[in-house]
Amino acid sequence: MRLVEGLEEVLAAKFAAILPHLDERQRRLLLGAEARVLGHGGIRLVARAAEVG
């Protein structure tokens, strides 16, 4: 579980730096790509890290 927590922190920092500069479509594409790369549980992890839905 520690790896997931560390990964969530890294993703949160990455998203905090990038997301403010993107429009809605670009944000969805980025978050979807990140979730897909992570595989099972990726959607939930990305959503928590990006503080969405």
Could you explain the architecture of this structure?
This protein has 53 residues and is mostly helical. The protein has a domain at 22-52. 77% of the residues lie in helices and 0% in strands. The protein is built from three helices and no strands. Helix 1 packs across helix 3 (42-50) and helix 2 crosses helix 3 (42-50). The N and C termini lie far apart (22 Å).
Give a summary of the structure in a few sentences:
With 53 residues, the protein is mainly alpha-helical. It is built from 3 helices and no strands.
Task: Describe the secondary structure blueprint for this structure.
Blueprint: H1 2-18, H2 24-38, H3 42-50
Helix pairs in contact: 1-3, 2-3
List keywords for this structure.
53 residues; mainly alpha
Would you tell me the overall average pLDDT?
A: 93
Structural class: mainly alpha
Shape: globular
Estimated share of beta-strand residues = under 5%
Helicity range? over 70%
Over all CA atoms, what is the radius of gyration?
Answer: 10 Å
Question: Total helix count?
Answer: 3
Q: How many beta strands in the DSSP annotation?
A: 0
Order of helices and strands: HHH
Main sheet makeup: none
Uncertain residue ranges: none
- The end-to-end distance, rounded to whole angstroms, is 22 Å
